[in-house]
Automatic annotation (TrEMBL):
It catalyses: a sn-glycero-3-phosphodiester + H2O = an alcohol + sn-glycerol 3-phosphate + H(+). GO terms for molecular function: glycerophosphodiester phosphodiesterase activity. The keyword GTP-binding does not apply. This is glycerophosphodiester phosphodiesterase. GO terms for biological process: glycerol metabolic process; lipid metabolic process. Its EC number is 3.1.4.46. It comes from Erythrobacter aureus. Residues 1-19 form the signal peptide.
Length: 344
């Protein structure tokens, strides 16, 4: 594998006609600059914008009183100080989320005012101890606040900045709590004047039905997220492997504008292209794989450097491989490193 990787590195020095150029390859700040600040905080989003990210990506869940807020999951015990708050001890419970048992505290059981009393903490303190220094400083932001931050930074910098929201578990959340996050997001996009085709917005979901509904509600470009295994929760008879076939991609193109596949669907183990990008482009779909992270724990063995899982490896080479595959962009926790590696 190492020898094959060296051959790929040599090939990267020669521009490919199929490779996306620096101008049309977007860098999406995954949960903000989450490699440097606790994820899904205004601080993480602003740092990513200041580093030059083209888009910031908030994962959206809903509160009990129907407000969209940014958290990686509906379970908030992992990313806030709620476990230490005695007044919320009785909110702890177990729920089966998309066939997986989860125990903790859940956003949909709290009002926005209650969530705003909490403070965010780093989700991966073992790998990112530097981020843990910021524990307790930040609140959970609303989607409205994130859109306002983007507007303010556009005015400050004079450049357009995109938003790439993901709806988390929309079908399950409607089944569990009767909260329709598809409608909430469509309403929020209209309110922020971000629902047109030419706005710098992509909306992403790991499910088919919610995307089809959004396709009828807004003109915003839509992206079907694709995991490494399994299939969409709302279509249990369909696998991701089915969707990634030429006929499956043709069907996706009927209701979405792009796919957000797991990186392993785009690059083989030796760093070569799998051909998925070409298949997706053939039916008019953009391809934005996820997620590039600098820590050794998230990198292939040949790109790891130094000692320990939290040490920084060769993220730049992986970023150039993704661009060389012809992909249209990439999600990353470390936008500054990826932008530098791509010569931006």
């Amino acid at each position: 594998m190492v020898r094959a990787l060296l051959l790929i590195l040599a090939a990267l020095a020669v521009p490919s006609a199929a490779a996306a150029t620096a101008q049309d390859f977007i860098v999406i700040a995954h949960r903000g600059a989450s490699g440097e600040r606790p994820e899904h905080t205004l601080a993480a989003y602003e740092r990513a914008i200041d580093q030059g990210a083209d888009y910031i990506e908030p994962d959206l869940v809903a509160t009990k009183d129907m407000q969209l807020v940014a958290r990686h999951e509906t379970e908030i015990g992992e990313t806030t100080d709620v476990a230490s708050r005695e007044e919320f001890a009785d909110r702890k419970r177990s729920k089966t989320i998309e066939r997986r048992l989860v125990t903790g505290w859940f956003a949909e059981d709290f009002t926005l005012a209650e969530l705003r009393s909490l403070r965010v903490r780093e989700r991966l303190p073992g790998l990112r101890p530097g981020n843990a220094r910021f524990d307790g400083l930040y609140q959970i932001p609303t989607f409205e606040e994130i859109a306002a931050l983007v507007r303010a930074k556009e005015a400050e910098t004079g450049r357009r900045i995109g938003i790439y929201p993901e709806l988390k578990h929309p079908t399950w959340l409607f089944q569990e709590a009767g909260i329709d996050t598809v409608d909430l997001l469509a309403t929020a996009l209209r309110k922020a004047d971000l629902d047109d085709a030419d706005d710098l917005v992509f909306v992403q979901v790991f499910e088919v039905g919610p995307l089809k509904r959004l396709n009828a509600l807004v003109e915003t470009p839509l992206v079907l997220l694709i995991s490494s295994q399994g299939g969409p929760y709302d279509e249990p008879a369909t696998s991701w492997a089915d969707i990634l076939t030429p006929s499956g991609l043709t069907e996706v193109a009927g209701y979405a504008d792009g796919i957000g596949p797991h990186l392993g669907h785009v690059l083989s183990a030796d760093g070569t292209s799998t051909g998925l990008v070409g298949d997706a482009h053939a039916v008019g779909l953009k391809v934005h794989p996820w997620t590039l992270r600098k820590e050794n724990a998230f990198l292939p063995p040949a790109l790891r450097r130094g000692a320990g899982q939290g040490a920084a490896g060769d993220l730049g080479t992986l970023a150039r491989m993704v661009r060389a595959s012809g992909a249209d962009g990439v999600f990353t926790d470390d936008p500054a490193l990826v932008l530098s590696a791509l010569g931006r």
